[in-house]
Amino acid sequence: MRLAGRQRRGRGRSRLRGDRRYRLDADGLRQRHRGAYLSTGSDFSVARIARGDLARFRAMNRLFAEVFDDPESYASRPPDDAYAEALLARADTVLLAAEADGEMIGALAGYILPKFEQARSELYIYDLAVTESWRRRGVATALIEETRRIAREAGVWVIYVQADTQPEDKPAIALYDKLGTREEVLHFDIAP
Predict the structure, then answer these.
(1) Which domains does the chain have, with CATH numbers?
(2) pLDDT tens-digit profile, the chain (192 residues)
(3) In the chain, N or C: fewer CB atoms in 10 Å?
(4) Could you give the CA distance from residue 7 to residue 119 in angstroms, rounded to a whole number?
(5) Distance from chain centroid for Cα 116
(6) HEC profile for the chain?
(7) How much is the pLDDT for 81?
(8) How far is CA 88 from the centre of its chain?
């Protein structure tokens, strides 16, 4: 199940695809999961990957490569330590890890984007993945809830995420329907 973000993009060509985009109100937290997934007594924990945490950063890329079955994008040319540290130091980069028993079981990558039309920002969830054995256990919801907390602290007015419309993406779409408002959009990949 691919939850969000990086689609299989054709290199060097444009492609039209119908996507679903979801807007998650940064203030509309669901209290049901709040706190339980961050406590030390829970099955798993969620933490932000920060400067100096190269091991988690590299584990996140391995997890995305495995879950998305896309080693070309996530594992073939990993960034060097200097690039990774610079990325981890940025306040506008949101990288989260869900872990259980010292193993990464889920991850989220997002970016805070300053807007030009008003003095405000949006947060784009670019990638969200959970290992198969941990799906349907609240991990993706916990990652999104932590993203909402970070968004509120940063003054973000909306969070958005895209979802593919393939049959295997139905669980992700159901989750986003529960948490946000659906918009039907067209997505174009344009080669630079």
Answers:
(1) 45-178 (3.40.630.30)
(2) 445 544 433 333 223 334 444 455 554 433 333 333 343 335 999 999 999 999 999 999 999 999 999 999 999 999 999 999 999 999 999 999 999 999 999 999 999 999 999 999 999 999 999 999 999 899 999 999 999 999 999 999 999 888 777 777 777 777 777 777 777 777 777 879
(3) C
(4) 30
(5) 23
(6) CCCEECCCCCCCCCEEEEEEEEEEECCCCCHHHCCHHHCCCCCCEEEECCCCCHHHHHHHHHHHHHHCCCHHHHCCCCCCHHHHHHHHHCCCEEEEEEEECCEEEEEEEEEEEECCCCCCEEEEEEEEEECHHHCCCCHHHHHHHHHHHHHHHHCEEEEEEEECCCHHHHHHHHHHHHHCEEEEEEEEECCC
(7) 97
(8) 15
User: End-to-end distance of the chain based on CA atoms, in angstroms?
Assistant: 29
d(CA 43, CA 128): 19
